[in-house]
Amino acid sequence: MRFAPRLGGMVASAVGYRSGGQPPALHRGLPSPWLTLIFSLDGPVTSGLTLEQARGADAVRTDIVVGGLHRSPAYIIQPEHETGVQLALHPLAARRLLGLPAGALTDQLVVSGTEVLGARAAEIHERMREQPGWEERFALLGSYLRARAAAADEATPVRREVVEAWAWLARHRGAGTLRGLPEHVALSPRRLTALFRAETGLSPKQAARLMRFEHAKSTVARSFAAGAPADLARVAADCGYYDHSHLVRDFRQYTGVSPTVWLAEECRNIQAGGHRNGEE
Q1: Which of 92-106, 220-234, 241-255 has the lowest mean pLDDT?
Q2: Where is the HTH araC/xylS-type domain (predicted)?
């Protein structure tokens, strides 16, 4: 189930998921221009930086997941039964919703939500598990996030130059040259990169590549979900890549596999609409 949260653009999407009767599977949590917040209601999410870690004793296991911007996949073990809510958060809303800039989340691929959000998040998690349906769960979570945002109104705001730089990149979906961006926000290239990285954890160029990849990945997934073969050459041209091989190289960097292999692995999630992170 999808929910359109009324949080002033701070939350791009919220998805309630439930599955059962499927054999355990590997899921690659792909890099994207959104932060991830998951409240798992049917046991902890098990993940790792590598497949070996995700399947081993040192896997990260947490009921509340916070994920920053990253440039390599997280490996997640999908159990036979799983239920939860996953949100895509705008990186520049991290100060208001999470209490810290997104740049503070880059040292770890996945962080326990209670470490970031505190004990109140654990209380909300338990209350969500007690709710009879999705509408009640979303209402509870939305109220919690609105309260956090309201309480943070006096916190240090994101610099307007970074806000405009992110908006400029998003308007172009990461495509095209970045030569005019520093002038657009009236900063030197070095100063813009320093401010942008401190706020998001990425440079403007790295963020642009993520946005371009997200656009291409979503286009490929939509074609697959509609039953049409993905025309990678056309997708590459439409999304601002030099050519088909350029798109494939980005896919391999961000997913660890080719587009064809990724589609085969993610068939279950794509058909369920799980590829629509940040899309309503």
Answers
A1: 220-234
A2: 177-265
At position 100, the amino acid (one-letter code) is: L
3-state secondary structure of 172: coil
**Token digits for 30?**
């792909």
What's the rounded mean pLDDT across residues 36-46? Answer: 94
Rounded CA gap, 242 and 273, in Å?
29
CATH of domain 11-151: 2.60.120
Give 113's pLDDT tier (boundaries 50, 70, 90). very high
| The amino acid at 58 | D
8 Å CB contact between 169 and 136: no
Query: For residue range 150-174, what is the model confidence (pLDDT) as tens digits?
Result: 998 767 789 999 999 999 999 999 9
Q: Which residue has the tokens 């945002």?
A: 149
Name the residue with higher pLDDT: 156 or 123: 123
Alpha-carbon distances, residue 243 vs 49, 108, 234 (angstroms): 30, 33, 9
Which residue reads 């095209």 in tokens? 176
Rounded CA-CA distance 204/166 in Å is 8
CATH 1.10.10.60 is right for the domain spanning 158-273: yes
* Interatomic CA distance for residues 14 and 29, integer angstroms: 16
Q: Report how far residue 88's alpha carbon sits from residue 164's, in angstroms, rounded to the nearest whole number.
A: 20
The three-point CA angle 189-192-194 to 5° equals: 110
For CATH 2.60.120, list the domain ranges present in the chain.
Answer: 11-151
